Amino acid sequence: MSYQQPPRRPGSGQGRPPQGRGGPGGYGPEPGYGRPGPGRKPAYHNTSMLPLPGQDEARDYGRPDDYRRPPGGEGYPPPPMRRPRRPRWGRRIGIAFLVLILIIVGVLVWMDFSLNRVTAIEDYPGRPAEAAGTNWLIVGSDSREGLTPEQKAQLSTGDAGGQRTDTIMVAHIPDNDTPPTLLSLPRDSNVEIPGHGTSKINAAFALGGAPLLVKTVEGATGLRIDHYAEINFGGFAEIVDDVGGVEMDIPEEMHDTVTGVTIPAGHQTLTGAQALGFVRMRHSGATPRSDLDRVANQRKFIGALAGKIATAGTLLNPFKLFPTIGSVTDALTVDDGDHLWHLMNLGFAMNGISDGSTVATTVPVTDGSATKWDSTKSKELFDALRQDTPIPPDALYK
Q: What is the reported pTM?
């Protein structure tokens, strides 16, 4: 069965030559209807456009597939300008701040692990119960261990062996708005030393070190010691030198007839060696009450030193802060349970000695020899500390 083309509708395709596959080569029989004339490209290859206003001649963009090439070549418009990306300063500052915090925390953790530690606070039957506030026992040791002959001469320490303590203090940090207290215990005070009878309080340190001294102080005062800090001669002088010295007002010239240390009168910055001579001095016309004047000078200097460390010039300057903290960790010996942040809390509390916001006093004694405590007044003092209440004025001994 042969295929027959259906008849055309009337008027369809009239006047139009046959197109498509009907002619040879697949084009219509005449130029202009699919077959290009001589020397001409097919119509759909002509990609030139009429000139735009202001142009002299038409622009030829080439073959359609030329548009796939990246712009900017010859005969193509220039690529659009990419807007520069604004720097994200907020993000950069945040990252830098985070890195700085991590470095500081890492250094503080390392310094905390570097603290010298000793088992100073032990539990035992009859130990005072926990009470309000926090109590520190602060001890200044006259140990010459580790000092060279030149350092001993510079610091005027002498050559005494063993370990004794020239400074015994209790720092009370309250839990309420009661002012902190720094209390001196004169070294010649006669107290009961567990297992050794009655003797001078500083003998406890020589007989049994930190544990026996803590137990002796707890028994004599009725206060439970929570933290312990001990510093020796060399460490004390090093801390003072690392902070750039400590400013002090010396009312009159001080000359120690035993050590030979002389400190002139006037406002001055004490070096480490001078500061050590100042807090140890008791054989001088400027210290007529001997040990009572010495402990008063010790409290005064601790307040000035804490104030120097707590200044913005030290806290905000890492070149001063980290060497200072490093010298503190090297110089101090603390209890096993103590950490660097405990020491910072203590330092901020003692910063108030200079402006009077921290109470600085001595346990009330009966006479200038400072060997016997006033039982009535000292009980009032210890009870106030135990209960976080203001100390009665008559229990304050300057």
A: 0.72
